[in-house]
Structures are given as C-alpha cells and as structure tokens.
Amino acid sequence: MIGLVKDEYPEYSVSVLTNGSLLADPAVRTELARADRVIPTLSTASQATFERIHRPHPSLRIDGIIAGMAELRRTYSGALWLEVFVVPGLNTSAEELAALRNAIDRIGPDQVQLNTLDRPAPEGWVRAASVAELERVGVLLGRPGTKIVARDDRAPGVPVAGTEAVERIRATLGRRPSTVDDLVRTTGLSGGEVVKILGVLEREGLVEQHRGTRGVFYSCCQVHEIPGEYA
Question: Which helix H or strand E contains 111, and what residues bound it?
C-alpha cells in the first residue's frame, strides 16, 4: 500500500501509525522504508506495565519491540516520531520513566509526543493525565523537542453536505467515540452541521451517547442503511 501511494500519487506524504509490535520483523521494516513518517507507540520499557496497558499477545516482549524500533531508526531515513501514552499511576513513576528514557535514547526518534486518555476508557481506573502531569513526564524523559499533543487543531475542511457529511461523521465514530468538538476538529464540519447530523443519526438508532470525563461522547451502536435526507 505504501509503494502504491508513493508510485501513483507522489505528491502525497505517507504516515504510518503503529503499535510497533511487528517492528522486530526485518520484512516489516523494509516495507516501511518508503513511508515519509512512522509513528510507533512506546509507553513503557517494563514487560509488566506493557501487559497492563496494552494486553498484548503472550508472544510479544517489550524488549524485542524496543530493539525493533532501534533497528528501524538505524536503517530508516524518514521521520520517526514516538508516541508515549501516559497513564497516571501506571507508567509515571520515576523508575518507569527512567527506564523509558533509556529506551527512547536507544531508539533515537526525531520527536517524542506525549498523549493521554481523551475518550471513555475500557477500564474505570484509567484516567487522563493533567497538563501538569504531562509536563512532569516530559521533564523526566529529558528529551529535547518532546511535545504534548494538543487538541486545538481543527482539520482543514472543505464544504460538505448531505450524505457525504454523514458518512464522514459515521466513519469517525466507527473508529473512536468522539464529542461534538472532536468531530468538528476531525471532520472540518461546523458545530451546527455536526449537531444536526448527530441528532438525525441518534433518532435513527445509528449512534448513541454516553458521558465521559470531557463531556458527552457519541459512538456507533449498530449498522443500518444511511437515510437519504438530512435537511
């Protein structure tokens, strides 16, 4: 897929978001070579914490994943951005962050991005890190250019109406629960358009809402035909 895009649409850049679990495989690293940007997730250097956060297949070892990331950096000429998902009380201790810092130094990414929970979690004990907690993590990781991922960027939008706008919202909700503000940022639609379409979809039984720490979230609840009119 990367090769197809680069060959047929050279004006586009290719970014690959990955959990990094297959980067120990040389064939995977070879196939990533033509991507403009690879963004793997690394939230811990501890096997126990890795299992707690990610619930990986039993065959996956975090030390092997880190080695794969380091090898990718050695051979890959594109941009390597590393995402660290911060879970307060789990991967935020001084010991955890010291080990993570060593792993990041070993990998040598171009940028480290700090992220945290922004939608309802599958487990009630998981909470989002505050800005102060994220800043502390950044200081302890001690890597220049570490960035706290902000949520204030709205996706550049183009005017869309009717079914196209509905499909854009449904596609987004099919990937992740979102608030109205999230949908405005990710779809490029106006707040009024988003609210109107969500109302129709909710009446049709296509989406449902529930409350999270950041407000009301919408998610897809079942599959139906898309109604034809959203006037």
Answer: strand 111-116
pTM of this prediction? Answer: 0.66
User: Euclidean distance between the first and final Cα of the chain, in Å?
Assistant: 38
- Say how far residue 68 (Cα) sits from the centre of its chain: 20
Q: Indicate the domain borders of the chain.
A: 2-148, 162-220
**Do 41 and 85 meet the contact criterion of CB atoms below 8 Å apart?**
yes
Token pair in block for residue 81: 């951005």
Buried residues in 54-78 as b, exposed as e (16+ CB within 10 A): beeeeebebeebbbbbbebbeebeb
If we measure between CA atoms, which residue out of 207, 167, 210 comes closest to residue 187? 167
Pick the CATH number of 162-220 from 1.20.1640.10, 1.10.10.10, 3.90.1100.10, 1.20.120.1460: 1.10.10.10
**Domain 2-148 annotated CATH 3.40.50.300:** no
Amino acid, single-letter form, for residue 211: R
- The predicted model gives 71-83 an average pLDDT of 94
Mean pLDDT computed over 214-224? 74
| Alpha-carbon distances of 173 from 11, 37, 105, 178, 207, rounded to whole Å | 29, 25, 36, 6, 8
